[in-house]
Write a structure and sequence with these properties.
The structure is a single chain. With about 350 residues, this protein is of the alpha/beta class. The protein has a domain at about 45-170 and about 245-315: Alpha/Beta hydrolase fold, catalytic domain (Rossmann fold, 3-Layer(aba) Sandwich). It has 13 helices and eight strands. The protein has helices at about 5-30, 85, 115-130, 140-150, 175-185, 190-195, 200-210, 220-230, 235-240, 250-255, 275-285, 300, 305-315, and strands at about 45-50, 50-60, 65-70, 90-95, 135, 160, 260-265, 290. An eight-stranded mixed beta sheet has the order 1-2-4-3-5-6-7-8, sandwiched between helices. Helix 1 crosses helix 6, helix 5 packs antiparallel against helix 9 and helix 7 packs across helix 8.
Length: about 350
């Protein structure tokens, strides 16, 4: 064996050892992870879409409202666990696990913003079947804007929780476009990269940055998001998110938006800081605005009592709720003027 052959033999052996170690790490990461169950209650349903099952829940009666979770590596509809029951007192509340997340199927597709916009549109048309208010968190708020601008009759109102689509546009989170997506999609090594990203330690760090009050981040909460991010196929949709393929520019859609719209922000949010509301209101000046404090990037989860009252009162005022008429709440909204802290 010449020197060149020996060098390539060592490279191949070391590569095989790396792949073997990655495979062992992946097996350990999924050990003890069962299929997700419905942790937020309500009537469970499955929507067959393009050959895949999309999980959702339904509860309550009255004008329909669809709650759409944000998008991150461990995302799913669990983020509405303290909101759905309260809001269902006066509305029919649907929650959905977007394809690739939560209890929905997680196929190895080419995930894009347009795919999710089509999914949400088809779900409302085929499952809900009547005009529906959209409530979108973070990136899903951007999808809600596009849908509402396209079809104001089907979507008569939208509420957006720290939405993206203006300042935070097409900026991959630490990965470089298509190359980053392909790296994570690699069967063994890519899975190991993703499992490292969603280790319990990494998830705890992410959640502690997400909430203003990091005591909310208990071991149980970390476990819930760990289980979500370790389902089979869990890496496919987040790979598209991490590489920027799920972003969408909402500027043109915002200019066409005519229906009532509400912005809700956590004052201490870091992923989408509070000052980013200015870009949305500079384009659509009649956005109503409410700020929750202390609260981070999931104000509806961190301050559910306040959020639930604000949203339900707003829906009622728009006659999109079957609740009795309520007066304007102090410290929230009045005559479309935002209550804001000093910036």
């Amino acid at each position: 064996m010449n020197q060149s052959d020996s060098r390539w033999r060592k490279i191949l052996m070391s590569g095989g050892a790396l792949i073997g170690a990655a495979a062992a790490f992946n097996a350990a990461a999924r050990k003890g992870v069962d299929p997700l169950t419905n942790l937020i209650g309500g009537e469970e349903g499955g929507f067959e879409w393009r050959g895949h099952r999309v999980a959702f829940t339904k509860r309550g009666s009255g004008p329909p409202v669809l709650l759409i979770h944000g998008i991150h590596a461990a995302a799913w509809s669990y983020e509405w666990h303290d909101n759905a029951d309260y809001l269902a007192r006066a509305n029919t509340i649907y929650t959905i696990d977007l394809l690739g997340f939560g209890r929905s199927d997680r196929p190895a597709l080419r995930y894009t913003a347009r795919l999710y916009i089509s999914l949400i549109s088809d779900f409302v048309h085929q499952v809900i079947g009547e005009p529906c208010a959209l409530i979108g968190s973070s990136l899903s708020g951007a999808y809600a804007i596009v849908l509402a601008a396209r079809d104001p009759q089907r979507f008569p109102a939208i509420a957006l929780i720290a939405p993206t689509g203006l300042v935070r546009l097409n900026k991959p989170a630490g990965m470089k476009g298509e190359a980053g997506r392909l790296a994570v999609e690699t069967p063994i090594v890519g899975t190991a990269m993703f499992n490292g990203l969603v280790s319990r330690r990494s998830l705890r760090n992410f959640l502690e940055k997400t909430y203003a009050d990091d005591t909310i981040v208990t071991d149980d909460l970390v476990d819930i998001y760990y289980w979500s991010s370790h389902q089979r196929g869990a890496r496919h949709a987040p790979a598209a998110f991490l590489s920027g393929h799920l972003n969408i520019d909402v500027r043109q859609a915002l200019r066409r938006l005519t229906q009532p719209a509400l912005l809700i922000w956590g004052e201490q949010g870091s992923a989408t800081p509070l000052e980013e509301f200015r870009g949305f209101r500079s384009i659509k000046r009649d956005f109503e605005m409410s700020v929750l404090s202390p609260a981070g990037d999931l104000p509806h989860d961190e301050r559910p009592d306040d959020f639930n009252v604000i949203l339900s009162t707003w829906l009622n005022r728009l006659s999109l709720s079957s609740a009795p008429t309520l007066g304007t709440l102090p410290g929230t909204l009045e005559d479309s003027q935002p209550t804001l802290p000093h910036l």
